[in-house]
Specification:
By secondary structure, the chain is mainly beta. 0% of the residues lie in helices and 53% in strands. A seven-stranded antiparallel beta sheet has the order 2-4-5-12-7-10-13, with no helix packed on it. A six-stranded antiparallel beta sheet has the order 1-20-17-22-15-14, with no helix packed on it. A hairpin with a 3-residue loop joins β8 and β9 (98-102).
Amino acid sequence: MNDTFVLRDSERGYDHFLSTGEASSYIGGHPEATLSRHSSFNFGPYQSGRAGFGRVRVFGDEVFRGAGCGYNIHPHHNFIICAFVLQGTLTHINTVGKIDQLKQGDYYAFSAGAGGKHCERNLENEDVNVIYLWILPDQLLLPPSYARHHFDAASQRNQIVPLVGRADGALRISQDLRVSRLASDQVQTIDYLPASPEHGVYVFVLEGEASCNGTRLGRRDSTGIWGEARITIETGAQDADLLIVESVR
């Protein structure tokens, strides 16, 4: 069955939070701090958007505005939280024992497993823009873990680079899922081959434009594709930056 869909930038879910509003116990920061979230996917009582993609339950494009803005310490169980920093400096504290600062190109995978807490803040004046993924693990109640890495767009340009999942050089997680990135500055056609017919591919355009299986996608547009043995990605002469998520159903 082919479940292909296209999700345009304007069709994503949207939420806007004030640090002094109803969510102030969860959203911290200066009284003028705000947190905005555009959502491709969500679940349960969270923001609007599609109901997930394979084992992905949240795909959020979030901006922390104002010094101190971010999430107060809060718990997670049996979720893998991945964050990819696109702009600014994200300060991340978690109960695995890590206090971390992540800048543009940095990313982490925090597996909460049997129980973990974390806090994420913007401690600078520059806005912080982060892509968040919440992923269901393939085993429950695993010991919590945390790892981070860096994507270097200059040295890893014009190739699909695995960031998270079951691939060499990627942050390993307990799920049949892969997150990759493609930063391109040339005209090229790249074929992406899913691991099996049970694997779908979600392509999200961070910046620029690209074509995916003949569908033109602009900035923050995306497409989800199931049931295809080959995904053809075409980029032009202008810079393009894509995040690619492959997940089993």
